[in-house]
Amino acid sequence: MQATSLSHGVVCAPGQRYHPATVAQSASTLAEMFPGRFWIAVGSGQALNEHITGEKWPAKIERNARLKESVDVMRELWTGAEVTHHGLVTVEEARLYTLPEQLPLIVGAAITPESARWMGGWADALITIEQAREALRKVVDAFREGGGEDKPMFLQVQLSSAETDEQAREGAFEQWGTNILQSSVLSDLRMPAQMTAAVQRLREEDIETQVRVSSDLNRHIDWLQQCAELGFKRLYLHNVNREQRAFIEAFGERVLPEFSKGG
């Protein structure tokens, strides 16, 4: 952030591995150092990351409740108050002494319409991932219906661009195959070996259900324009294969200019 003028966001799951008071302190400091540029996306987490604490991995309904408690704690700390809280998270006499003039956005990270609708009532914005157009529209509609009508929405676009379609598909499946599993499955897997086993029955072409795979830059432009039409304020492009330099050069030269025309 020091070396660029870009906004910057991180995704975390406060409540188990990350204590919400610590998250609030870090976010507050970054928001003070870089006004208006830092945001934090929060989600209910995955067992793969959280189980290391040795605590019980809660059911989804409890993880959601813990997440909302954590967000409430963070926001109270950002008022400058001394906070003590006993619930699904515990806070004792916590207070922040560096408070930014402009608070960071708390962005709800949701994949399903159910989570998006719930987050619409309390998150400052939504971030989700690209999926089939109708499925993505349901997420958008649910967020708006749940209270997010006038709130910004961000989209992470998983794509794979290469010299040939075959290279793009192979590279995507090799690097991103585990991430096409359903969210309900991914959230409860504890170890990398379990993820590897879970994708054994998937075919290479299955990657295209979750990743935009093509060597044709015009196709990528069309796909991104369709995303923009759904009302997303920002599109974060994630090339999931390993050929990052070629991706940056090609998209910088051919794709991004299509979205900067007319300002």
Outline:
The protein is 43% helix and 17% strand. It is of the alpha/beta class.
- How many whole angstroms does the radius of gyration measure? 19 Å
The computed structural class is alpha/beta
Report on the biggest sheet: 7 strands, parallel
Shape designation: globular
Number of strands: 9
Q: Give the terminus-to-terminus CA distance.
A: 24 Å
Total domain modules: 2
What portion of residues is helical? 40-55%
Secondary-structure element order, N to C? EHEHHEEEHEHEHHHEHEHH
Uncertain segments of ≥5 residues (pLDDT<50)? none
Task: Report mean pLDDT, rounded to a whole number.
Answer: 93
Number of helical segments with 4 or more residues: 11
Give a written overview of the molecule.
With 263 residues, the chain is of the alpha/beta class. The protein has two domains: 1-109, no CATH class; 156-263, no CATH class. Helices cover 43% and strands 17% of the residues. The protein contains eleven helices and nine strands. Strands 1, 2, 5, 6, 7, 8 and 9 form a seven-stranded parallel β-sheet that branches. It has a two-stranded antiparallel ribbon with strand order 3-4. The longest helix is centred in the N-terminal third of the chain and has 18 residues, at 60-77. The mean pLDDT is 93.
